[in-house]
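Milestone 3.1: sequence recovery, worked example.
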């Protein structure tokens, strides 16, 4: 007898308008407003600039890209099951360099013209028609290569995204623009398929967080470095639901 191991429903809310304003607000009717002011007071980060990059502005120059992340939140259940609300039409992009311009990358830094450092319209990247919320971090002198500083930068960006997540939790599910349900089943006699993916765990620039509290989040996750780079078993639905966050 087949057995349902997990069931994940992702409800999608498409953003048609992304603008700058005096508050961080998102609605289920397709509008997102970003406040460009973000205060940081710690030993690693000098300041953060927040901008909106429109689909027709990919010729701008950016510092080294640290991550590109969708905005998603758990509404019911834990990561990999229950209900998740996610936004389309907008992504959050983290970039970073120190006050002297040194990029936040040990090797393979990807600063430059945006259209040349991001391959748009690929799996895991924004489409050419998406808005990008640019969370640009300026580290203090020589801090861009410190693991603690990189982790703090991700947590600052995660705190910024959490403002929108808390509002998204209150969206009415029947107002979604798309709905996708994924059922993970055990079927006796059917071959089980295992996908092995090696995620990085090397110093400050090559860390990954596993199973954070929120999809693609930083808070509550486990560093693959702190886990000794040992194997971690994830279900297909945990993977779909944002169980891995790149901390590069």
């Amino acid at each position: 007898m087949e057995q349902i191991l997990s069931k994940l429903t992702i409800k999608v809310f498409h953003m048609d308008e992304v603008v700058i304003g005096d508050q961080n607000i998102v609605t289920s009717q397709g509008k997102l407003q970003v406040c460009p002011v973000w205060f940081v007071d710690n030993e690693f980060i000098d300041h953060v600039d927040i901008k909106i990059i429109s689909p027709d502005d990919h010729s701008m120059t950016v510092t080294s890209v640290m991550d590109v992340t969708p905005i998603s939140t758990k509404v019911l259940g834990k990561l990999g099951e229950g209900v998740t609300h996610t936004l389309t039409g907008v992504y959050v992009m983290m970039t970073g360099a120190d006050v002297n311009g040194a990029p936040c990358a040990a090797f393979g830094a990807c600063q430059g013209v945006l259209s040349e450092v991001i391959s748009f319209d690929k799996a895991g990247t924004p489409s050419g028609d998406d808005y990008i919320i640019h969370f640009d971090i300026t580290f203090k002198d020589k801090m861009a290569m410190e693991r603690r500083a990189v982790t703090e930068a991700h947590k600052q960006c995660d705190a910024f995204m959490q403002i929108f997540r808390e509002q998204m939790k209150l969206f009415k599910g029947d107002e979604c623009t798309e709905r996708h349900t994924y059922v993970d089943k055990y079927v006796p006699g059917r071959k089980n398929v295992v996908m092995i993916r090696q995620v990085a765990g090397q110093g400050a620039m090559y860390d990954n967080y596993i199973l954070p509290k929120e999809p693609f989040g930083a808070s509550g996750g486990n560093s693959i470095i702190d886990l000794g780079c040992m194997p971690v078993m994830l279900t297909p639905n945990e993977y779909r639901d944002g169980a891995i966050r790149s901390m590069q």
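The mean pLDDT is 91. The longest strand covers residues 3-14.
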